[in-house]
Specification:
Elements (H helix, E strand, L loop, with lengths): L3 E6 L9 E6 L7 E2 L21 H18 L4 H17 L6 E5 H14 L4 E3 L6 E3 L5 H14 L1
Antiparallel strand pairs: 1-2, 1-4, 2-3, 5-6
Helix pairs in contact: 1-2, 1-3, 2-3
Amino acid sequence: MRRHIYVGNREAGHGTGILVTVREEGVPGSLVPLPVRLDVRKHSPTGFEWGYEGSGPAQLALALCLHVLETEGAPWWRERALHCYQDVKRLLVAPVQDNQWQFTSEDVLWAIHDAEQERPLDMVQCDRHALTHPSRALCPDCLREEQEQEEKLS
């Protein structure tokens, strides 16, 4: 498991005054800004915030969940992040009252785990392939077949 360190600083940002970075522990030169991920959901076009339960903290919680689950190689990482990020906002992001903070990937995974325990992801079984998958996602085999069909048509 690769351990990541997430740091938020309200005074260090450019423009908004907020900067959230991520780095892989023990990897020199790995410090980068945490992607806002407006491509997934647009809660706050102005970026991240914390300390309350609004749109900026929702954008931060979503970005943290997406980054942690994707880098962990978690199954259904995108669907899981979309399912639980509002709970992670409430459990992890909203309570922070300082201008600077630091979370580890374990902190975020703990919040995701708690959120999923409170409100499990709905899973269904594909009738065609007998595979279990999140109800809001296509069966991976159905998705692959659909993509193959589209390639044949183009």
